[in-house]
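**User:** My hope is that you can spare some time for a protein that puzzles me. As I understand it, each token names a local backbone shape. I would be glad if you read both lines and explained how they fit together. The protein I mean follows directly.
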Amino acid sequence: MLNVLYVLLFSFLVLGDNIQHNSIETINGKILFVVSNADHYGDTAIPTANHFSELVFPYDELTNAGYQVDFVSPNGGAVPLGYFDTSDKLIQHYLYDCDFMMKLKKTHLPENINPNDYKAIYYGGGGAAMFGVVDNEAIQAIAIHIYEKNQGVISAVCHGSLGIANLKKSNGEYLVKGKKVNGFPDKFEKKEAKYFQAFDHSVEELLKKRGAEFRYSEEGWDGYFQVDGRLITGQDPSAARKVATMIIETLTEKNKNY
């Protein structure tokens, strides 16, 4: 059974509400992480969550590179977390990182986000990413603004790649049309399982339907990712840090050209 941590409860019991938080020094700009409020697979009783390592590893990489990371969710506020590997020291560290956990307790509402502030947007995965994000028009508008107006990066990993499937450019075309895109492939989905029956689409299915050139690793869990211009996508949790590295490289190269 999925071990789900509810950030609101965790923050109250372990961190407290009266902790003073130091702001992260912003050197290179801001990046927006998209997470989901869904705690069950659709209308089922099967619990789900945002994938903790798919948030932790990119967050660690990006903040160490001088970026400030903010979190947005469809409903704002606390989001469920799961898929913990507590044997990993970095995971252990961030479970008790006050600033990080408070950000996930108090995720921003889309309407409170100024898209002009961000150089990139990143969609985290986990089963929760399949619900509430892909059809959220406010988050879609933020993502396209970052991509077109700011000339920024759109990125995603694993099931988070579903969140980019419905993004449309200002000319009305789907962003992923004709693009090399990656995400969690059907090969590794358990299609006979009840959780899968709650999906309206699989990640691979919807991306292909939108005209993407879906590429993936047959082996899986080998850090596979795809870069197509300012669109960066990873296959599964093993690619999360690599996606962040490519965000940094892409933004660095873009700055050199100005």
